[in-house]
Design a protein that fits this description.
- With 397 residues, this protein is of the alpha/beta class.
- It has two domains: 174 residues, Flavin prenyltransferase-like (Rossmann fold); 207 residues, Rossmann fold (3-Layer(aba) Sandwich).
- 34% of the residues lie in helices and 24% in strands.
- The strands form five sheets. It has an eight-stranded mixed sheet, with helices on both faces. The protein has a five-stranded parallel sheet with strand order 2-1-3-4-5, sandwiched between helices.
- Helix 5 crosses helix 8 and helix 10 packs across helix 14.
- The longest helix is centred in the C-terminal third of the chain and has 16 residues.
- Bound molecules: flavin mononucleotide.
């Protein structure tokens, strides 16, 4: 897994002569695994073409706040929500001043205001401009607000001057964006995550299962790995790729998943039960394919063992987080589950809507523990995964 695998970066390109280097920055971010969308300011468009940025990013370039089509769906808000990080490189003195003043005078400044993700800026300008009190004061204010400044390099400039103000190297910029996602918050911690759907055989051909794709569990695994945890995955039936580096154990049925969890739960610090485990298995699965007939066929089901409840009752239980995929009486059902299972928190997701939850790349959840509930609005599962791990870290570790 590279430092920007599954990360969505919005790259703002503003009006510095160094904007001609922006396609290279896009490529270096992609080398680290990022998907990149570009916002080009009017100033930036004087120095680099939309086409070069579209060709390298493989995405439409956004260059206009007043784009009627994009704004039908509030394009600037969508872009802000889409981003895992916002990088402005090169950042012109003018764009830096806009950010400092909290302006929303163009698409880039509006997206910065509308986003809650980390922002990095790589200033690039003439050395005298860079050294000016105006620019230095603005940068100091932005740093105070939590914006990360990627320092410019010292050297020969396009205008012939020599000094500090050259855009940092593209590889260095991409590296700093990548390192921002790495943390040591969970280093030394062991996390066991179940994910995907279980499969209960009816006969050698048919089975009972559900729509879980494993994407939410995998996003949580990515977030734990990024935070330095040692992750073990108990994997059911999934339709997503598996995160490295992690220990991977496959379990098809609810019974196998129960056994795998119990064999691996010792010494775990956190258990996240994200798999959609069947509540019932087939009482007498047939050894041979059931032949079609005109008779009514009755399949007897028997309840499966409750993995989360049993882990919660272990004498040295880890921090236990469950999921509640509900279609009605959402909060009530999730709160009952929290009490009945004895876990530390339940993550509620509404799976009644087609564009959220199962199979989808997006989700909207409520994190419910015994003291409070936190609503996490619709976003990519990757981004939600990171937020959930942050909450677990803050509340329980
Ligand atoms: C030839 C030329 C080169 C420029 N180079 C820079 C530069 O490297 N850095 C900078 O901050 N501004 C530079 N400027 C000024 C900006 O392009 C100008 O302030 C513009 O309004 C910035 O717009 P933006 O911040 O919306 O992209 C340059 C202007 C010209 C005409």
């Amino acid at each position: 897994m590279s430092s920007l695998t599954n990360k969505r970066i919005v790259l703002g390109v503003s009006g510095s002569i160094a904007a001609y280097k922006a396609p290279d920055i896009v490529r270096r971010l992609q080398d680290l695994g990022a998907e990149v969308r570009v916002i080009l300011t009017q100033g930036g468009a004087q120095f680099i073409t939309e086409l070069s940025l579209q060709a390298t990013s493989k995405n439409k370039v956004h260059d206009n706040l007043w784009d009627k089509e994009a704004e039908l769906s509030m394009g600037h808000i969508e872009l802000a929500k889409w981003a895992d990080a916002l990088l402005i490189a090169p950042a012109s003195a003018n764009t830096i001043a806009n950010l400092t003043a909290g302006k929303a005078c163009d698409l880039l400044s509006s997206v910065v205001l509308a986003s809650d993700c980390p922002v990095l800026i790589a200033p690039a300008m003439n050395q005298q401009m860079y050294a000016s009190n105006g620019v230095q004061d603005n940068l100091a204010t932005l740093v105070q607000r939590g914006i990360q400044v990627i320092d410019p390099a010292h050297g020969a400039q396009a205008c012939g001057d020599i000094g500090e103000g050259r855009l940092a190297e593209s590889t260095e910029i991409a590296k700093q964006v990548g390192s921002m996602f790495l943390s040591t918050k969970l280093s030394g911690k062991k996390v066991l995550i179940t994910l995907g759907a279980t499969i209960e055989a009816i006969d050698p051909v048919r089975y009972l299962s559900n729509h879980s794709s494993g994407k939410m569990g995998m996003a949580l695994a990515d977030a734990c790995i990024e935070a330095g945890a040692q992750v073990t995955l108990i994997i059911g039936n999934i339709s997503t790729s598996i995160s490295e580096p992690s220990k991977q154990i496959y379990a098809s049925s609810a019974k196998q998943m129960y056994q795998s969890v119990m064999e691996n739960i010792k010494d775990q610090d956190i258990f996240i039960a994200c798999a959609a485990v069947s509540d019932y298995s087939v009482k007498n699965p047939k050894n041979h394919k059931i032949k079609k007939s005109n008779q009514v066929l009755t399949i007897e089901l028997t309840p499966t063992k409750d993995i989360l409840k049993d882990v919660c009752q272990l004498p040295q239980k880890p921090i236990c987080i469950g999921f509640a995929a509900e279609t009605q009486n959402l909060l009530e059902n999730a709160q009952n589950k929290l009490k009945n299972k004895g876990c530390d928190a339940i993550i509620l997701n509404d799976v009644s809507s087609a564009d959220l939850g199962f199979k989808s790349d997006e989700n909207a959840v409520v994190f419910i523990d015994h003291k409070s509930s936190i609503k996490l609005a619709k976003n990519s599962k990757q981004k939600l995964g990171r937020k959930i791990i942050e909450i677990i870290n803050k509340k329980f570790l």
